[in-house]
Every structure is written in structure tokens, then in C-alpha cells.
């Protein structure tokens, strides 16, 4: 009956639980081309939808003529706002409390805005018909520069809310103004600046970028007229939220809506929101009674779905001459585009930007954010970062470097003097957060020791002297960043989306033979959830990870959850998984006590079994207890072995890290090469080190793309200049640097297994590290702040402005 | 639009379909043959998610008409797994070295690496990076893809690749 004797350690290793570099379950299908992505779905009778989009950034629609388009063989319908308006579906609610046009009614507000939706038998017929929809426009003056949005004579963009002085987040100051959001103590901060021995002030802009997962946004909507039920397969990072929103706006009862997110080809925030194409596909399916597939192309993805950043941050630091910071003041002008579709928890119009004090012990701080409308696409998603955290990290990390330069102090030394000390945790920040745990000085010191920081600085000094002597045309820059992330949104006391608290969930069922299915409210887009959640359960329940199936993305079977973004899966659903497993374990203990005829207090847990204290030869394995749960439970105990948990986190988690990189900049070409990038991450308890390393590599590469070249650019007429991968930079294997990863481990004190989340840390810490390196290369020549992105052209320009190309 | 016959060999099997002349090879493979391993990521030949092997060359099937492949021999990711289900060294290497995350670029990336190793069985790291630079990955940062290809190169030539994924 009992297992072959083996040591606890041997049995633990076989589970492939916490800390194991377990190979990914998902890969078996992906490496064989057997993934199941939305566009792979083949339902018989499927129609194809395609969107007519505006060529203008701001124009009045005079007329729409669909007659020629309807003549294309195979075209069934062309939907316009006139068709959606009677259903009250021509506008949809955004996550930010605004509305967004599904199909433009009177005006278009950004180039490539959705105007009409063609439904046809084939994708080719739909594309042909799109070309034949005749829309007459009257062009209007555009607002592209956010700094001109609130000018007294600025064009009115949102006529639908022109006279609405109260927005979702308070009073609006101007018809193109969305909100003002403030945190901190303004009076005390202003006083600190009045007393300051040293101050710096800089406009630090974070350009508009796009997450660009390799798979674009897409869906298949299928309405069953007989049952009155709607099924939508789609690229959804948050399937349950999509279901609730779909129900609220379509009036189809929520239990008759089935949302399925199959395999997703990357998300990075791009697939959090609801897009007009989804609504149109749903309406088209209801109208035609057939499945309707809508698949964006890359131009549509880059030019109409959610952008990220576009934050223009004026940062000021007050400090003593010895480098101790005494105050931080930041004002942000935020360009939200034509509709406020920013993806943040409802009460946080600027996300968690108030993490802008970073990793430093600022006694006082004040930040304020003004959001404005412009003639650009809506969005404002967190592109691989928690809500507005990478903007905040870039701001404070650039500002600290600028302060270091003013104080003529080494940037690492300045950070060391101001990092929050270990004994200060849990730490109350001046802008309202309670940092859970950290040992920042140890991390920073380990990073500096690992790269040989002092030696690098000596080399840089020698190179600078050689440059001045004309012996080299290469500048060496050392980038330092120390970041604190804030992830795991979030506690119901302050985080909700459309009124739904941001808990997350796990349901675990142990089958009679001891294998398991677990279902979660999150949704992997490549993070490896099928692998890692199983590892948590394996360690908690003593069941091999290979015997555990993890399922996500089907709203019919998964418990309600808020989805995967903002590095929240491990902090929230990972916690729910551990807690649900513990509920099962508690029941199993009662069953074990019953079978072994002892009091449950007399049992102790040993890897995969309960054994009698002092008599280790008397035990029941979890496998045995699973079987017993279905036939020999104690009197009064219900049968079965399953549990569900809806985890409401008591606090956010605060991963952190110290990054150092070395750049060599050719001043004559602007070309910048990174010969070293060292990333030390502390994400608390490490579930799967292989996957963590992969997440760090990927996040650093995205940070490299952002810092070194990505930008959604618009000309003065509002034409998008970067709508394909020809013009929008995605790094290839050639220019991507080699990554060196490292870690420290400071468990979160409030998380059941101490994990903090890691997916987005490398983007948050990486961007300022690259930018600081390029700036550091030029700083000794007098440069204060060179804005991103640091592509060859801009870097060459920076060198030129410093007079480095003079004959 | 009038349809034309297109015939070719795909993963070792002869196929004949009537398609519109403008049908792209990627749509032919995915929609007409049901081979959904190759993916569409950009439609502009940049990302390489649609990469297949055609007459001994890597091609991006999103910017080629099916009719241009008339008479050709095409291999997709589906043709790489041995008939008995045994994974190719590259498929094994990508899993062993954590060379994929969302999996969307993977079929194209592996097919590109397949041709690379046919042309150069012992590539240096630089040669691998250059060799896959027409294939974009948004998740991995490429480092583990390089390791995966090194692993496969070693295995195919009987030398075990030692370095672990971390």
C-alpha cells in the first residue's frame, strides 16, 4: 500500500515544485505548430469583418455611401454608426470612465479611426469592399502636441462632451482637458524646495510607444440565435472583464455570454482593452446569425489599438549638498489621445504614478497629472509594466542622475545615500504607498561588485581623457538604475475595474486518482502559467506538477478573475492558488486523521503525506487521501476534494532591482552598442528560475527597443509615420545585447508563498538604465538630459549639438 | 475572381487546390490546407512568423503568392516532427533552453533555424544571430533562442550542448 521508501528530499524533487527549473508544459504544442490561436479557429460558415478607417486625424463626416461596396460579390453587410446607434452601441464605455466611438458618427478624431465595418464571405471580398466605401470628409484643424491641447483657441476635439465640465475624475479645466490628479503634500514639498541647498528641474518626456505583440488583436464572435447565446473567442488578457462589459453594453445576460481566450501570441498590455472591432464582430454575428472573424493587420494594430506612455514629466528634486534628497515635485502632462481609454484601476486615472519617489527616502513629495485629449489614437496601457510605473521609474531615475551630475557625485553613490534602508520596511512613502519588503543596499552593492563598478568608472575616465586628446571617437557610458515596482493590483480597498474589486481566483479539484485540474481567472500570454501554477500546487499538496493540469481563459469554467497584466498573476492568482491548495490540504488532514485513527493535531506534513508525529512509518500520502476523499470521509464530512479561493491581497507587492549597463557610443555615427548589461532582480520567492530568467530577458529586450528606437510618431497633420515594422523599431537578434541576470531574494511578508511577480520589472528598470548610459556618455561634455529614444540619428544630433562634429 | 489550380508538395504530400490568383502562400497553407503552424504577424516581410522552407530556402510566406510556389516543395513546422511523433532536435532544443514564451514566432523561428543549420551546421553565436535576424521575437530577447539553436546544432552533430538555461 505504501510507497517505496525514499527520503523527503528525493520525494520533494520529484514533485517539480517551487524553485524547480521545470520545462514548460506549453512548449510541447508550440514547438510543433499546434498552438491554438484565435486566427487558427475554423468554424463552418465563418464570415470575415474588415474596417473602413479614416485617412484624416480630425474631420467631419459629411456622408457615407456604401452602395458600391455592397455590390462586391460575397458582401453581406456594411455597418456604420447609423446602424449601431439604435442599439446604443455606437459608443462603448472605456475602462477610464470615458466613452469611445465604436464607429465614428459625426467626426473622426484620429487617423485610422474606425468608420465602417464590412462583413463578407471571404477576407478578400471584405478588403475589396472596404476600398469601395465612399466617405466624404471635411478636414478640421488638428491637435497633435499635447502642450497645445489646452490653448484658449485650440480646436474642440470632443464635441460629445464639450459642455460636460465634470469628468470621471473631477472638474475639467478646458474642453480638451480630461482630469487633474494629485498626490502628496504640496505645502510641505514647496517648503522643502524653499529651504533646499541644491535643486534640479528637468522636463523628462517619455515618448508614445506601442506594445506590438507579434500576434495582433483579433476575435471570432458567434451568436446562436436559437439559444440566444454569444460566444467570443478573442485575444483577451482579461476574459471575465470582457464578458461583464459585453453583457452590460449588449444587454445579453452574462450567463449567456461565453468568452474564450485561447493561446495568445503575446500581449504586453495591448490586449487588455476592448476594441471597436470586437463590438462590430459581435453585432455582425447577431445580425447575420453566423460566426464573424475579425483579425487586425499590423498597420491597424500599430495605429489604432492601445498605445503606451506619452507622458511629459517635469521633475524637480530638492537636496542637501551632501546628496541627501529632501523633496520631490513632479508635474505630468499626459496625452491620452482622442478618447480616455487608459487601462488603469478605476480610481487611478494616472495609474500608480505616485510610485515616482522610487526607491529613495524622500521625506516629502508632491505629484500632479493633467490628462488631455489630442488627435491621436486612444489608449494608455501599461506596456509591460504596472500602471504608469515605468514612466515613474524613468522619471525618478533620470532625475537622480541629473542631480548626481549637478552635485558632481557618482550616480551609484547618490543612490546608495538615499535608498530606503532595510530596517525602514514596511516603508510608508511620501506619496502614500506601503512598500512591503526590501534590502536595497545589499542589492545595489551586489550589482556594483558583480560588474566591477569602480574599475568601469576608471576605464571611462581614461577613455574620456583619450577622447579629449582626439585619440578616440567613442564615448563610454555607464548606466545605473535602481527601481521599485508596484504590482499585484490589487487590494479591494483601493483597486477596482468598473466597480469590480481586483481580487483574483483559483479553483483546484483533486481527482480520485490524485491528479488535479486547476482553473484560474488570469490568462497567460506567454508567461508559462500552465507550468508555474502547477509548481505552486505541487509544493503545497505534494502532487507531482506533471499530474496537474492548469486551465485558463474560458469564462464558463474558470472562476471570476480580473486577468493578467500589471504583473498581477503571481501576486494575486498565485496567492489564490496557494490558499486554495491549503484549504484542500486542511481537509486532507482531517481525512488522514480519520484513517490513521489519531487526532489531526497529532499529524505532521512531510512533502507529500501526513504522518503521525513520532511514528513516521504511519502515514497517508496525498494520493491515498484523494482516493479516500471520494469514499471514506469522516462522518459528517462531505465527499470530494476541491476548493476555490478569491484572493483579496492585503497590499501590493514591491519587486525591485539594480541594473547596470555599459554603452559605447560612436559620436560620428550615433551608433550605440551595449557591451554589458547586468540585471539583478528581487522578485521575492522564485517559483521557476528558468521562467524568471526568460521573463527578464524579454523585458530587457523590450526596454532596449523603447529606449533605443521605438516611437509612435505623427506629423503636424496627424498622419502616423510609424505604422509598420519598417518604421517602428523592434529589435532583432543582431542588435539585442547579451543579458546577464542575477538575483537576491526578499520574500513578500504578506504573500502566502512570498512571491512578488517579475514579468515587468525588467522593462521598468531597463528603460532608465539604457537611457542613463547614453546620457552618461555625454554628460562630461555638458549634456544634462538627452531625450529618448536614443536611435542613431538622435544620438548623432546630440553629439552635434555638443559641437563634437566641428572640424 | 476566377480561380486557378495550384499544385505543390507540402510536408512530403502532393496537394492541388483551386485558389484566387492573389491568394498568398500563407493563406493557402493556413486556410486551404489547415496548416496553422505558420503565423501572420506583420504582412510586410519583417517579422518572419510565416517562415516556411521552400525548395531549400527560407521564405516568408506572407509576401509570396501561392501560385509562385507552383511545383515547389514546401515544408512547414508541421513537417518537422517525425511521423512517429519524435521531436526534431530544434523542437527539443527550444523547449530545453526555454527558447519560446508565447509561441507565436516559434514555428517560423524554428523553420528558419532549420535552414540555417542545413547551410551551416556549426554556426557561431554571431552567425546564429545574423541568421535569424529576419525573424522577430517579442518575448525571449533571443538569448535562449540562440542557446536552443546551439543545442540543436550540437545534437545533430553528436555533441551535447552543456550550458543550462540558467
Fold and architecture overview:
The complex is a heterodimer of chains A (807) and B (166). Chain A is of the alpha+beta class. Chain A folds into three domains: 8-35 and 504-647, Aldehyde Oxidoreductase, domain 4; 43-140 and 216-264 and 271-295, Aldehyde Oxidoreductase, domain 3 (Alpha-Beta Complex), CATH 3.90.1170; 397-486 and 652-801, Aldehyde Oxidoreductase, domain 4 (2-Layer Sandwich), CATH 3.30.365.10. In chain A, 28% of the residues lie in helices and 25% in strands. In chain A, strands 3-7-1-16-13-14-15 form a seven-stranded mixed sheet, sandwiched between helices. In chain A, helix 10 runs parallel beside helix 18 (761-779), helix 15 crosses helix 16 (622-629) and helix 17 crosses helix 18 (761-779). The longest helix of chain A is centred in the last third of the chain and has 28 residues, at 569-596. Chain A is globular. Chain B is of the alpha+beta class and 166 residues long. Chain B is built from five helices and five strands; from the N terminus they run E-E-H-E-E-E-H-H-H-H. Chain B folds into two domains: 4-79, Roll (Ubiquitin-like (UB roll)); 89-156, Orthogonal Bundle (DNA polymerase, domain 1). In chain B, strands 2-1-5-3-4 form a five-stranded mixed sheet, sandwiched between helices. The model of chain B has no long low-confidence stretch (mean pLDDT 95). The radius of gyration of chain B is 16 Å and the shape is globular. The interface between A and B is large, with 58 and 62 residues.
Amino acid at each position: 500500500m505504501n510507497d517505496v521508501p525514499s527520503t523527503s528530499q528525493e520525494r520533494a524533487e520529484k514533485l517539480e515544485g517551487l524553485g524547480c527549473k521545470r520545462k514548460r508544459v506549453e512548449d510541447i504544442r508550440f514547438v510543433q505548430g499546434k498552438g491554438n490561436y484565435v486566427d487558427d479557429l475554423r468554424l463552418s460558415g465563418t464570415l470575415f469583418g474588415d474596417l473602413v478607417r479614416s485617412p484624416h486625424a480630425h474631420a467631419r463626416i459629411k456622408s457615407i455611401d456604401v452602395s458600391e461596396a455592397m455590390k462586391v460579390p460575397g458582401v453581406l453587410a456594411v455597418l456604420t454608426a447609423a446602424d449601431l446607434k439604435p442599439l446604443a452601441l455606437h459608443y462603448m464605455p472605456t475602462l477610464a470612465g470615458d466613452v469611445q466611438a465604436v464607429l465614428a458618427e459625426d467626426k473622426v478624431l484620429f487617423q485610422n479611426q474606425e468608420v465602417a465595418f464590412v462583413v463578407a464571405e471571404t477576407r478578400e471580398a471584405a478588403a475589396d469592399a472596404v476600398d469601395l466605401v465612399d466617405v466624404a470628409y471635411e478636414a478640421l484643424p488638428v491637435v497633435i502636441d499635447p502642450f497645445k491641447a489646452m490653448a484658449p483657441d485650440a480646436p474642440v476635439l470632443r464635441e460629445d462632451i464639450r459642455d460636460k465640465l465634470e469628468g470621471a475624475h473631477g472638474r475639467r479645466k478646458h474642453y480638451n482637458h480630461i482630469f487633474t490628479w494629485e498626490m502628496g503634500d504640496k505645502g510641505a514639498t514647496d517648503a522643502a524646495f524653499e529651504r533646499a541647498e541644491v535643486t534640479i528641474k528637468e522636463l523628462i518626456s517619455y515618448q508614445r510607444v506601442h506594445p506590438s505583440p507579434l500576434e495582433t488583436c483579433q476575435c471570432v464572435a458567434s451568436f446562436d440565435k436559437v439559444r440566444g447565446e454569444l460566444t467570443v473567442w478573442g485575444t483577451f488578457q482579461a476574459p471575465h472583464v470582457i464578458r461583464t462589459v459585453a453583457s452590460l453594453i449588449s444587454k445579453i445576460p452574462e450567463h449567456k455570454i461565453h468568452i474564450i481566450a485561447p493561446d495568445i501570441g503575446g500581449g504586453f498590455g495591448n490586449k487588455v482593452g476592448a476594441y471597436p472591432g470586437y463590438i462590430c464582430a459581435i453585432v455582425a454575428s447577431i445580425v447575420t446569425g453566423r460566426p464573424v472573424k475579425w483579425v487586425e493587420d499590423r498597420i491597424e494594430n500599430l495605429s489604432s489599438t492601445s498605445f503606451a506612455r506619452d507622458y511629459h514629466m517635469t521633475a524637480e528634486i530638492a537636496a542637501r549638498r551632501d546628496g541627501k534628497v529632501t523633496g520631490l515635485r513632479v508635474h505630468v502632462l499626459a496625452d491620452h489621445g482622442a478618447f480616455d481609454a487608459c487601462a488603469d484601476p478605476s480610481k487611478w486615472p494616472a495609474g500608480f504614478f505616485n510610485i515616482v519617489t522610487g526607491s529613495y527616502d524622500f521625506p516629502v513629495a508632491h505629484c500632479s497629472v493633467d490628462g488631455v485629449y489630442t488627435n491621436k489614437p486612444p489608449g494608455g496601457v501599461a506596456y509591460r509594466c504596472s500602471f504608469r510605473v515605468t514612466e515613474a521609474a524613468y522619471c525618478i531615475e533620470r532625475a537622480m542622475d541629473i542631480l548626481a551630475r549637478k552635485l558632481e557625485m557618482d550616480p551609484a553613490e547618490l543612490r546608495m545615500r538615499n535608498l530606503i534602508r532595510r530596517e525602514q520596511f514596511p516603508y510608508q512613502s511620501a506619496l502614500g504607498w506601503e512598500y512591503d519588503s526590501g534590502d536595497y543596499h545589499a542589492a545595489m552593492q551586489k550589482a556594483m561588485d558583480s560588474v566591477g563598478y569602480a574599475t568601469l568608472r576608471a576605464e571611462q575616465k581614461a577613455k574620456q581623457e583619450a577622447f579629449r586628446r582626439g585619440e578616440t571617437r567613442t564615448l563610454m557610458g555607464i548606466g545605473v538604475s535602481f527601481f521599485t515596482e508596484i504590482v499585484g493590483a490589487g487590494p479591494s480597498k483601493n483597486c477596482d475595474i468598473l466597480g469590480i474589486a481586483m481580487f483574483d481566483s483559483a479553483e483546484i479539484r483533486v481527482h480520485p486518482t490524485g491528479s488535479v485540474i486547476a482553473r484560474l481567472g488570469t490568462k497567460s500570454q506567454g508567461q508559462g502559467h500552465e507550468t508555474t501554477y502547477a509548481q505552486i500546487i505541487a509544493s503545497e499538496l505534494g502532487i507531482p506538477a506533471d499530474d496537474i493540469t492548469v486551465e485558463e481563459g474560458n469564462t464558463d469554467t474558470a472562476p471570476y478573475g480580473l486577468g493578467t497584466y500589471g504583473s498581477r498573476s503571481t501576486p494575486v492568482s498565485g496567492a489564490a492558488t496557494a490558499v486554495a491548495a491549503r484549504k484542500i490540504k486542511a481537509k486532507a488532514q482531517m481525512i488522514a486523521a480519520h484513517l490513521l485513527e489519531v487526532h489531526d493535531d497529532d499529524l505532521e506534513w512531510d512533502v507529500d503525506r501526513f504522518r503521525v508525529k513520532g511514528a513516521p512509518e504511519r502515514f497517508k500520502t496525498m494520493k491515498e487521501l484523494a482516493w479516500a476523499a471520494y469514499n471514506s470521509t469522516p462522518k459528517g464530512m462531505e465527499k470530494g476534494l476541491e476548493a476555490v479561493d478569491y484572493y483579496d491581497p492585503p497590499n501590493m507587492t514591491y519587486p525591485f532591482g539594480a541594473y547596470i549597463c555599459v554603452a559605447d557610443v560612436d559620436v560620428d555615427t550615433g551608433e550605440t552598442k551595449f557591451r554589458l548589461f547586468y540585471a539583478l532582480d528581487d522578485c521575492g520567492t522564485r517559483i521557476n528560475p528558468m521562467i524568471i530568467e526568460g521573463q527578464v530577458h524579454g523585458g530587457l529586450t523590450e526596454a532596449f527597443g523603447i529606449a533605443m528606437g521605438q516611437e509612435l510618431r505623427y506629423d503636424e497633420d496627424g498622419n502616423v509615420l510609424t505604422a509598420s515594422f519598417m518604421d517602428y523599431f523592434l529589435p532583432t537578434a543582431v542588435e539585442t545585447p547579451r543579458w546577464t541576470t542575477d538575483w537576491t531574494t526578499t520574500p513578500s511578508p504578506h504573500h502566502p508563498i512570498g512571491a512578488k511577480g517579475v514579468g515587468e520589472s525588467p522593462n521598468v528598470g531597463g528603460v532608465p538604465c539604457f537611457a542613463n548610459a547614453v546620457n552618461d556618455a555625454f554628460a562630461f561634455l555638458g549634456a544634462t538630459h538627452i531625450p529618448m529614444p536614443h536611435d542613431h540619428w538622435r544620438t548623432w544630433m546630440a553629439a552635434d549639438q555638443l559641437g563634437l562634429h566641428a572640424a | 475572381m476566377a480561380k486557378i489550380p495550384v499544385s505543390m508538395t507540402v510536408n512530403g504530400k502532393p496537394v492541388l487546390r483551386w485558389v484566387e490568383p492573389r491568394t498568398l502562400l500563407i493563406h493557402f497553407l493556413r486556410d486551404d490546407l489547415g496548416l496553422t503552424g505558420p503565423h501572420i504577424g506583420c504582412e510586410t516581410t519583417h517579422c518572419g512568423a510565416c517562415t516556411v522552407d521552400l525548395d531549400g530556402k527560407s521564405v516568408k510566406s506572407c509576401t509570396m503568392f501561392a501560385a509562385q510556389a507552383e511545383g515547389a516543395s514546401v515544408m512547414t513546422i508541421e513537417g518537422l516532427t517525425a511521423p512517429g511523433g519524435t521531436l526534431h532536435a530544434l523542437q527539443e532544443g527550444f523547449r530545453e533552453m526555454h527558447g519560446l514564451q508565447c509561441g507565436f514566432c516559434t514555428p517560423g523561428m524554428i523553420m528558419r533555424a532549420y535552414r540555417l543549420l542545413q547551410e551551416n551546421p556549426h554556426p557561431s553565436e554571431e552567425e546564429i544571430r545574423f541568421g535569424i535576424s529576419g525573424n522577430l521575437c517579442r518575448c525571449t530577447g533571443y538569448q535562449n533562442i540562440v542557446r536552443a539553436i546551439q543545442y540543436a546544432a550540437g545534437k545533430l552533430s553528436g555533441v551535447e550542448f552543456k550550458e543550462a538555461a540558467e
